[in-house]
Fold this protein.
Amino acid sequence: MNLMKPESLHALVIDQYSGELSPEVADLLEAYLALQPAARKEAEHITETLLLMNATVAEHPECVRVWAQDEIKPLRVPRRKMMLPMWMKAAAVIVFSAFTGAAGFYAGTSRFSAASSAIADVTPVEPRRDSPWARYRMALDPHGHGMQVVRVDLAEREGRP
């Protein structure tokens, strides 16, 4: 069972060859390679490749371009320009919120008035008279502000509190 990804093994072996591993990590890598024969074989192939590359560069330095320190320039990443200033974005959010709020308010009031006229056309069902509980019905508000709940048996309860 191989517990390490091949990419991690390759990176660790290359770092070990370059002398960039701490002694503790190098000892752990050696212990892992001792327990995993397939990983040990892969590490040996990587080391052989690195040795061959090192020998080739030493024998043919003209094949490798080495940059002087003053030739290396940091990569400049251009800043992304903002599409709109921040105050324009805030203004757009405020205008959008006001528009949707107003549109929702007017749509709700016009739909409610249409629904209330449809409700007014329907004759109310007469409630049963034999119940001891209070009875209520929905009625249009006389001031035209929507609906209200009206007690049905109020006329019969004149003498009671």
The chain has four helices and two strands. The first strand starts at residue 136 and ends at 140.
